[in-house]
Amino acid sequence: xxxxxxxxxxxxxxxxxxxxxxxxxxxxxxxxxxxxxxxxxxxxxxxxxxxxxxxxxxxxxxxxxxxxxxxxxxxxxxxxxxxxxxxxxxxxxxxxxxxxxxxxxxxxxxxxxxxxxxxxxxxxxxxxxxxxxxxxxxxxxxxxxxxxxxxxxxxxxxxxxxxxxxxxxxxxxxxxxxxxxxxxxxxxxxxxxxxxxxxxxxxxxxxxxxxxxxxxxxxxxxxxxxxxxxxxxxxxxxxxxxxxxxxxxxxxxxxxxxxxxxxxxxxxxxxxxxxxxxxxxx
Length: 282
Description:
Elements: H1 2-11, E1 34-40, H2 49-59, E2 60-69, H3 79-101, H4 104-116, H5 120-129, H6 133-145, H7 157-160, H8 169-202, H9 206-230, H10 248-281
Parallel strand pairs: 1-2
Helix pairs in contact: 3-4, 6-8, 8-9, 9-10
């Protein structure tokens, strides 16, 4: 098939191609190398469809397009059409194959593979999911970063990992600045979290305490889940990393929440000074 495609290209005077025979589940190309990736009547025949989809996504550039042409099973609500379709699929098609191509088994496999292939809607979901592609890329970023990172702007994960500037910004940080910077970031978040809990500990008013605890739990939980997702501890959730993830709504909500906490902390300090003055007067 590859030779026939090459011959057709030569006959059409299209010679600017590199012809490579490779496994669809392990393509011999670099990440983010192609603008388009196409497959026609082949994805149904690979041994591991999810691996093939992951590879296709890996070699595509950001915003590249994956184009797939494939048969899909038909589902009729009318029972008569269903029986006619089954009759045509399992009886007529193999018979035609045995008469014309002298190969009944191949046409029986054709029908079976089409029936076992997911519907268009399900296959669309498979393409979107790509079998934890994001988490795999995230872990690779941590491995490449090691202790000191590859350098600012030198990381490659941001060119192939979707949502790297929001959900997986910590992976970019790990690759470009290394484990030491990641630990320092975790320490800073730990200090902020401890401070939030300390503000809650000092509060005496019930309403204020509930507000402070709500903000503290939301901030700490969001931070833990985001880091856990990048390390494959939790499933991908779409939760951003407070103060670091790109996006106006995320940064704005985090800033407002911390601003409220600062206000409570300031009021506590003012109330404490007032009580000290009252005690001195007494």
